[in-house]
Amino acid sequence: MRVLMINKFLHPNGGSETYIFKLGEMLKKMGHEVQYFGMEHNERCVGNRVNAYTSNMNFHNGFKLTKLTYPFKTIYSKEARIQIRKVLDDFRPDVCHLNNFNYQLTPSVILEIVKWRSETVKDCKIIYTAHDYQLVCPNHMLNNPNTRQNCEKCLGGYFFNCIRGKCIHGSMAKSIVGMMEAEFWKRNGVYKYIDIIICPSNFMKTKLDTNPLFAPKTVMMHHFVDKIESKSTDKKNYVLYFGRFSEEKGIGTLLKVCKELPDIQFVFAGSGSLEESVNGVARNVKNVGFQKGAALEKLIREARFSICPSEWYEVLGFSVLESQTYGTPVLGADIGGIPELIQVGKTGELFESGNAEELKRKIRVLWDDRELCKDYSANCKDISFDTIDEYYEKLMEVYQ
Questions:
Q1: How many whole angstroms separate alpha carbon 53 and alpha carbon 50?
Q2: 216-239 residue pLDDT tens
Q3: Which of 32, 78, 200, 272 has the fewest Cβ atoms within 10 angstroms?
């Protein structure tokens, strides 16, 4: 089977890139051919045989004089159609697997796949893995960054609310572009050509299912985790947060609680806009910066428990998956896809998202009861999330 992975970034940038790289490696291992289409970049590490990519474009830098065409390119991209057609003609994929494509590539690529499929009478499925809420919310997050509140006003296709809330980076100009992009493709009906939409959580599935066009197409498949060595690890005296340091991740609430629990050591591993705030709690908060690989695994394994305090509709909560995989229980916010991953009273606990008092109380309970944490840690070894091999089997059913 020939699979064309489509993603705007073809270099390490975030979760969707980790997903396509690992999935691509697995597909190749199982005998399939895999090529990639997206933007050119000096750190691009995957690609296609004809070296066809779109120009690098950064939507976050604003509409400067040299970027006057950006608002139009983020809605419709002739360049993306021209470049992907080169790949389609050469590679002739059996599956086009879309990931993050809005703004930089645009849904224009779907139109070209459909056109190519029709002209060549080629049976090529269009699969989409949703890594965010882009199909139902112009700012991707179902969250208003100005009010710092979760928002579902655009569900049902009421995208003008994006302008009212200035939901994209707090910018009226960018919010207008985001609304225009969503409205244009809604009226165009491009998403009807997607055969299957893979949702990483039941929560995300319920949000996408609010659109009658998507509901018959969605399937839920939790993301896979790496196979790990099962081994006993001595726990150390700290509570771990790892991930992005930002408001929607609940860092503000967590830091408030940290200050009120001065006898408990907290370790923060990550980076982000609130890094100065993290560094400002010197007494019992240690910032070890962004960690990965063996260093991050060691931090997770040795923590008494980890905290996932998100205050936005977390699509899944990969840190929750990772923690439990390494035998570390999780105290997670009851929001988004997080509750789907924690067996309350067995592998961790939940607290009301944004509720500092409840978070503080549950941290105290878990910290003071070592035996309870040990039991939760032991229970983590009995649960299983899909490995990439198991995920692959499910994916093959989707691809067929």
A1: 9
A2: 999 999 999 887 776 778 999 999
A3: 78
Comparing CA positions, the residue from 341, 321, 329 lying closest to residue 374 is 329
Cα 274 → chain centroid: 20
- Range 192-196 contact pairs with CB under 8 angstroms and sequence separation of 24 or more: 193/110, 193/113, 193/114, 193/126, 194/98, 194/110, 194/126, 194/127, 194/128, 195/125, 195/126, 195/127, 196/125, 196/127, 196/128, 196/398
d(CA 194, CA 217): 8
SS3 content of the chain, % helix, strand, coil (to 5): 40, 15, 45
Burial of 83 (0-12, 13-18, 19+ CB in 10 A): buried
Q: Walk me through the domains of the chain, giving residue ranges and CATH numbers.
A: 2-224+389-399 (3.40.50.2000), 239-380 (3.40.50.2000)
Residue 231: other Cβ atoms inside 10 A: 9
Residue 381 forms beta bridges with which residues? Answer: none
Rounded Cα gap, residues 271 and 289, in angstroms: 6
Question: Which of 246, 256, 237 minimizes the C-alpha distance to 303?
Answer: 237
pLDDT tens-digit series, residues 54-99: 998 765 554 453 455 556 778 999 999 999 999 999 999 999 999 9
CA 75 to chain centre: 22
